[in-house]
Give the backbone structure.
Amino acid sequence: MKVYQMVIPFLMRTTMIYFMGVQYLGLNSLFTSILQVLNLAELGIGSAMVFSMYKPIAEDDRVQINALLKLYRTYYRIVGLIIGVVGVILTPFIPRLISGDIPVGINIYILYLLNLGATVLTYWLFAYKNSLLQAHQRVDVTSIITIITNTIQYTIQLLILIFLKNYYLYVITVLITQVLNNILTAIITNNMYPDYKPIGKMDKEVVRVINNRIKDLFTGKIGAVIINSADTIVISAFLGLTVLAIYQNYFYMITAVTGFMEIILSSMLAGLGNSYIIETKEKNYLDLEKFTFIFCWLSGICFCYFLCLYQPFMEIWVGKENMLKFSAVICFSIYFYIYEINRLLNTFKDAAGLWHEDRFRPLITALTNLTLNLITVQFWGIYGVLLSTVISIVVVGMPWILYNMFTVYFDRSLARKYIVQLLKYTGTVVVVGCVTYCICMLVHAGQWGTFFFRLLICFVLPNVLFLLVYYKNPHFKESVQLADKITKNKFRLEKHICRI
């Protein structure tokens, strides 16, 4: 599904650039960010409810699960209503978030309300059913449904872009396929779990605990929304839709790769949640070390790809006139690496349910980012926006989450060891990235030739260098064993690496 969600939307963006213009891409990004802000009404209900299901699922307590589903359904109906009302109230202010011109003949209000309608329907139509699939680690089912509905959506949208060039129909298609997605999810979930129905009443004490979790998650939700949406809205308001579209073309590549990394994180979450219940803290800490090693390696490889391939790819895709300077590439590459390590730490924190202790960290981090955005965008433009996000995560977010993890759950004495390991891994990534970039800069063979030769170098060289550095690291052996286990020993990686 992630390959699909990377390739097909890429083709759609390319089609929109050539048939409609870059300003329409800017509109897409702006509406997405505004609706992310409105989704604050969700409060983190989904995370709290899925976490609450781990124990009753492990104990096969169907009565409790059914009562949770009923509570979840009620909450999401309220959320949809709040988003709809607040969204309508905010309608008159939408034009103020756009600097410069908008596409000719476009009514911003109608487009906004159509996007708002798609969001509201997401919550009203069986949204609570997804919690069963997530808690049972059956997100693969969601993936299949998404591929089916997205294929219908993209096919219709592609025909609209090429033959009708009507942006209103383009957005209406999103609304219709969102409804279809929710209905299919509900039907299939009912068939898979026929004994689970939204019935029964939760114990008041359990509801109080869940509500407290939601309150703790709310500040985190605010922080996540600001981090994800502030950059887009600030660029639109200060630099215009064209600059926003160019920025989003670069950011799209980041999003595509983080989507692949998210597969690992989402697959880990329920398993880690179970591990926190039945395993020791020592075992869970060793898992943290192992997965930190894996993520630093994977994120380091991607760091090299971004550093060396961004500009050649963008020149082929959108042309030199729609490219940023290499300094922006450095900022994007650093942002990606920091973002992934931060996501890993958040996954372990979420699995442990440390939301109360962590409730203010995302908000303070996000407010720091927003403040820096508003200041630096006026002096450094788009580069200031990127650096603001990196600085807020590195200086505020990551130290804070590490403090919470090693004072509330893990042994405090292990914090220094872990941080030193993380810094060593990061230093290695920087050195390997610089070496790979210098080698790639020696390659000049035309647009396509340069891209493919550098792609080959980035695939081989960083992995060889990491292997030379880490082959004696105990976590390397554990990671290879894990890879063999995941692939059911089809490749026998451990055996081949031992020969080397």
Notes: The radius of gyration is 23 Å. The longest helix spans residues 241-278.
